[in-house]
Amino acid sequence: MNVTPAPAALARRPQKLPRPNDACWCGSGKKYKKCHSEDDADARRDEKKRLEANRVRPGHLSPMRTVPPHILRPDYAETGVPGRGSGRLFRTPEELPRMRRACQAAAKLLRLAGEQVKPGVTTDQIDAFVHQTTIDLGGYPSTLNYRGYKKSLCTSVNEIICHGIPDDRALVDGDIVNLDVTIFLDGFHGDTNATFLVGTVDEESRELVRVTRECLMLGVEAVKPGRPVSDIGRAIEQHASKHGYGVVRSYCGHGIGDTFHANLQVPHYFDPRATTRLEPGMTFTIEPMISLGTWEDTVWDDGWTAVTKDLKRSAQFEHTVLVTEAGVEILTVE
Ligand code: MF3
Ligand code: CO
Ligand code: CO
Question: Which ligand places an atom closest to the C-alpha of 302?
């Protein structure tokens, strides 16, 4: 058969590059080391420089906001140290309507917070909005003073994976930003997040955000009574891998109810050790963090902000769910 090699100008640099003595990816028929090898090394260096120059830097924090005394608080609100709570993973029939209301309030908060996202708005302004709106709904922003965290939501921009702290950095056209809101209402926590586009965002990032949302929904659909928790991560990882994305491993979904982080870990990758069986009445979160490049993270000196090691972008979506006899109910919907 007569195969015409693709012209070099049209062939795209693949994710996995050839070895020096292999044929070049461009179709020239030359050895890689004699063809695109140096160009590729230059391009990689330029890309690293660009990511380093554009990385999100820590800004200044406003003073901690206060919550009026009539609002019911979780045990750690004063001390910053969560007590053991009940730690229960199952909701009783009496608790379920209250859990639903907390989660519905969280969903509403997330929608309203998302409406604030536009270029020029600082993440601290979003914090002020979410703080006040949470109080208006009769709730306490669960993150406030949780293990000493000083803000009422997490705002994670671009390469920030999660737990970004709202500060005076203004959102820039082209950013992606995750807003993670949690409300403590009538004794129960509702936890949900989404990644929003700031103005006009490049196609690669929009694809990441789209696929990450799909990862969450596939994780949710994997929830079935009798199945192990590991089914959830398996479904998520499969989809992310198909797109060549990394699945963050340092942070997991968690049991939630009268305790913010109850003792059930939900990995978003396939972990055969996640053998706990799903049972009706369990409430927990699924919150995959998916990255354009590596799954590896590092944490800023602030002790909270988790960023990708390669500074490539990461997106996240989160729901609080209930295991039912039939399968699953997403609680964080309006
Ligand atoms: N809402 C986050 C979660 O999904 C937890 C944030 S804890 C904080 O689990 F202290 F960082 F705010
Ligand atoms: Co959350
Ligand atoms: Co969560």
Answer: 1
